[in-house]
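User: I'm preparing a small set of examples for a lab meeting where we compare how different chains pack in three dimensions. I only have the primary sequence for this one, and I'd like the structure in token form so I can line it up with the others. Please keep the answer compact; I'll paste it straight into my notes.
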Amino acid sequence: MKKLLLFTFIFSSISYSQTPCDTVTNRAGIYPCDDYALLSNIPLTTFEANSSSDSWGWTDSTTGKEYAIIALRNGSGYVDVSDPVNPIYLGKLISPVLNEFQGNWHDVKVYNNYAFIVSEISGHGMQIFDLTKLRNVTNPPVVFEDDGVYTGFGSAHNIAINEDSGFAYGIGTNTFSGGPHFVNIQDPPNPIAAGGFAGEGYTHDAQIVMYNGPDSDYQGIELFVGSNEDRVVFVDVSDKGNPQTLSEISYSDVEYTHQGWFTEDQKYFVVTDELDEVFNGNMLRLIIMDMTDLDNPVEHMQYIGETPAVDHNVYVKGDKIYLSAYSGGMRVLDISDIDNRNIEEVGYFDTWPADDRTSASIGDPGAWNVYPFFESGNLIITNFSDNGGLFVVTKNDNILSNPESKNDSFSVFPNPTTERVTITSEGTPITHIEIYDMLGKRLRVIEALDEMSKELNMAAFESGIYLVNLNKSTTLKIVKR
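Assistant: Understood. Below is the structure token output for the 481-residue chain.
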């Protein structure tokens, strides 16, 4: 793809501001919060875009680095967040087609080291980008070129990918009456059309899994779960040439069935309705479906939140729900007792602090998406607005429980870590490093240094807390996950 535009990128607009969530004021700087701290924020001006939407993440299996992908109005941006306090904006992939409004929102998912990007722009198709290019950016930011465009459909509202089967699903495309459009992406640069399914009409969003839940009748099938505006549909798509609807379910006060996600045991499916807060005056609401019997799903419960903000995208990791709720920001819910119909909000981070609404409205700004799947435990949030951009947040304990990780002379990031940390001196060069476990056993000594920054590989260390003594004078604490 030819570069369509030239950009002047302004590094000074990047905002780095690691800020704990104050437990008295419930603020991290200007942002309302509960138990979640701000690590950094990159505003939209840096990406030279006037709005953002979806987001996703990629972890490089070769280097262990974590990268954020932010969907923009005119393309997609790529950010190295392996040091979440000091993210590096690597560059931008421009949309293959821009309309008179210079774009529309984009959506992105990742498979096998490739990003797949779609948009509702007419003729956009599915853009393909090799993420391993991010390893070799030496003078960021740059304008990337894509690695192909699948043109079996033009516009698409969204894209879903089953990483276990290697199939992408164009969602809300201009084909198959807006039902899912199947694409074989097992060889990512060479996608192959694999049919589609129009039998249940327009799908707004979807999750596709290899089913291993409690219903023994359907073990091992490829299950498509579509949020289809006024109901949720469950379709066996194992045979792409002959998809079979298993069941569907709706719920009370339905306005717009938007999106959903399975719990990890695939017993429950969590559903958001994007417009019930707007038109029915509901507080934030999630509908939980019991999927013990795929032929006969039933409503298990409804969770009613404490804010009138509109719920948007929801994901489940472990026993937590991570929900983007526009003007309510990111909400985090504990579902460890979901069997007994107990769901409790345990944290939030509000990326739209200017909001003082007492009710929801169409087009609310704020958190469009939250990506919670990084092994580090850090999360990325994107706003749908002309403000905000990309936020990196983490549990408050990851900052507050490690006060030794930063002092006037030395700092260590990321902390906690899964593999590598970088120790940086703000004054005296680092000359000597010793690493101890919590029993006082010395595990490693690094001598004869004269460096202002030193990277440590902690991959061989077991999970736990370690003490790092620098220059025989200063001790920092590192948490290895």
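A couple of notes for your slides: The CA atoms of residues 253 and 280 lie 7 Å apart. The helical segments are 44-47, 276-280, 397-400.

User: Perfect, thanks.
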